[in-house]
Amino acid sequence: MLIYLRKRIVSSALPLVVVIVGVFALARMTGNPASLYLPLNATQQMRDDFTARNGLDQPLLVQMADYFGGVLRLDFGQSLRTGQDAAAMALRAFPATLQLAATTMVLAVLLALVVGCWAALKPNGIADRISSFVSMAAASIPDFWLAIVGIWVFAITLGWLPTSGVSGAGAWVLPIATLLLRPFGVLVQIVRGSMVSALSEPYIKLARSRGAGELRVVTHHALRNAAAPALTVAGDLTVGLVNGAVVVETIFGWPGIGKLMIDSILQRDFAVLQAAVLLTAVAIFALNILIDMGYALLDARVRPVTVKA
Amino acid sequence: MKTATDQAPAKRSRAAATAAAAGTGAATGQAKAHDVVLQVRDLAVDIRTHRGTVRAVNSVAFEARAGETLALLGESGCGKSMTAKALAGIMDPVCDLADGEILLNGTDLAALTAKERLKFAGPELGIVFQDALTALNPVYTVGTQLGEAFRIHRGLNAKQARVEAIDLMKRVGIPEPESRINSYPHQFSGGMRQRILIAMAVALNPRLLIADEPTTALDVTVQAQIMQLLRKLREEGQMAVILITHDLAVVAEEADSVAVMYAGNVVESGPVSEVFADPRHPYTKGLLESVPVHLERGARLKSIAGSPPELHDIPAGCVYQSRCPLVQDICRAERPVLRPVTSVTGTPVTGAPVTGTPVNVPSGTEPRPARTAACHFSEEINNV
According to the 3-state scheme, what is the secondary structure of A255-285? Predict the structure, then answer.
C-alpha cells in the first residue's frame, strides 16, 4: 500500500508543474498590475519602477524560473495587494472552504444514501418516483439563483438568517443548503441506479436464502457493491466544491479559497492566485488518491497488487 | 472434529419443535430416510409482464424425501428454476406466488410472510445456484459469507462464525481452509466456488437442499466431483435434495425420483427407474428417445419437433398438444391432470396421487412416490 501511495504521489508531481506553468502564463495575460495599483495619473517612470520592483519586467521564462526556485524553497512570493506571504493567505482561506465542502458533502452523501436506497427498494414504486422527481429538481436548480432566492426569503424577508459572513451557526445554513442541492440530487440518482442493479444480482438472492433480512441485504450486501459509482461521483463533486464554491462563496461573502481566487484575479495579484491554485490542485490530487484508496477498501478486486522482490 | 451426523440430532431439535407446533404428523427427531420432507401441491407462479400477467408455473406438485434426490427435469424456460426460487422464497420482484402449498415438515411456507420465511432460510432449506461466481458477493471474503448463516441464525460472533466456516470448508473438501478463508470469491476456481456455494447451503444442516443446475457451468471432471460431494452431504445429513437439471444422464445417475416439467406443468413423475423404463407421457418419451445411443455414423439425431408454447399463448387443453404425435380432439379441449398410472405389470401403482389430500401415515410405512402422468393416453401410450 505504501509503495502504491509513493508511486501515486510521485506521479502527481508532473501534472502539478503543468498546472503552475499554465496558471503562471495565463495570469500574466490579464495585463500589467501596475495599471491597477498605481494612480491613474502615474508617470511612465513610476510604472516602470513598479514593474521592475515586482520582477515583472523580466522575460516570462526568467520569471517562471525564479518562481519555481521559490516554490522549491517553499517561498510562494508576496501579495501585491497586502504585501503578505501568498502561501499564508491561501492557507488561511482554505479551511473555510474545506469546512464548507466537507460539511456539504457529508450531508449530501448521507442524505443521498438514505433516499437512494429507499428509492431502489421498489423500482418504479411511489418512493422511487418521488425521489426521482426531487433529485432531478435538486440537480437542475442553478446555485446562484437559489442563493439569491434564499437570501431574499430567509435573510431579507423573514430575517431568520444572516445574508453573509461566517458569524454563528446560522451563517452556515444558506451556503450549505445552496451547495448541497446539486450533489444531493446527482448522488441520489447514482445511488438509486447502482443499488437497483446490485439488488438484482444473484448474490442478493443467495443472501436472502441464508436468512438475511431486508436491512442486512441492503446495508451489508448491496450497498458495498453499489458504493463505487457513488464514490466516483461524490469525489468529482467534492473536487468542484474544494475548487472553491466560487459563486456561492462570492454571494455569501464566505472567506474561502474560491473568493480569494476571484479577488486575486480581479486584482492581478499573481502570487496569491498561483498559491491558491497550487494549493487547490494539491488538495484535488490528494482527494483523488483518497478516492482510489476508497475503491480498494471497498472491493478487493481493485486492490493494487504489491509484488514482493 | 465431530461429523455432521453426530451433530444432527441437536441441530434438528428446533426444527422438530416447529414441525410439532404446526401440529402435523411429520417427522419428529432426526429425519429418517425416506420420510417426506417437502410436499408441494398445486404450486402456481405468475409473472407480471408488460403484456399482462402470465402463469409460468402451473399446478406443480411433487414431494421430496429425506436422503433421496428428486430431479426436476425440463428444458430451458419450462419453469423448473422458477419453481426452485418459489420454494426458497427468493423470486424476482415481478413474480407472485399465485396458488398452492409448500409444506416443509408440515409448515406451509407459501402461507408465511417474507419475514417469517427468513427463519426457515438456512436452517430448514438451502439453495445452490448454477453460476457460483455471480452467486457469491464479490466484495466479501468467502469466510464472511460462509459464516453469515451462523451469525444470523445462531447469533455467533465473528470469531465463532469463522471457526464454523473453516469447518464447513473442510466438509466440502476445500484444501487449506485456514488460509483460504480470507480469500475473495474471484480468487477461487469454478469448482471451488461451487463447493463454497454448496457449503453455504448446507451450513445449518437443512432438511431440504435445492440444487439449481449446480454443475452446468463446470467442466465434466469437476461436475462429477460436485455431484459426488452433493451425494455425500445428502447421506451425512439425511437431506432431501431437489436437483434441477436438463441433463437426462444426471437424472439417471443421481436421482431417486423425477418430475418432468413442460411449459410450467409437471407432466410426469415417479421413481426414475420406472419413468425412464416406461415413460407415460409423450414428452418424456420424446426426451428419452432424443438421447443418442448406438447411432449409425451419419444418422440423424432424434429430436422433438417444434418448440414449447409461449407463456402468453398457452393453449387450452394439453400444454404439449402442438408437439405431440398422439394428439387427439380431447387433448385440445381438456387439460389432462396428473393422475396415477398403472405400472408395467398392469397393476395400479400403490400410493396416493401427490395432488390429493396429504397422507399422514406413520413414517416408515409411507407409500412410495406415486407414478403419475398428465396425459389422456398415459395407459395407451406404449401400445401405439
Answer: CCHHHHHHHHHHCCCHHHHHHHHHHHHHHHH
